[in-house]
Amino acid sequence: MSTTVRIPTPLRRVTNGQDKVTVEGATINEIINSLESQHPGIRERLCDEQGQLRNFVNIYVNGEDVRFLDGINSPAKEGDEISIVPAVAGG
Fold first, then answer.
1. How many CB atoms lie within 10 A of CB 44?
2. Which CATH architecture has domain 2-86?
């Protein structure tokens, strides 16, 4: 099953400038692994050493933050909109 992932501007240098990448996977973790196989180095920007999402990275499935679903194990199906959104700090 293929899913399209929206890539934010700061990560596009890893994806050769692509703003959308089509990958395979039934969970966010599988999607991240598929992204990593196509674009080495992206996983370390998304996940920490324990394999969990970094605090400053938000991933949404159809507008729902995966942290409020099943985290990195949240399911994804063909046609879902997956977005990676880096947190923005300021004040």
1. 12
2. Roll (3.10)
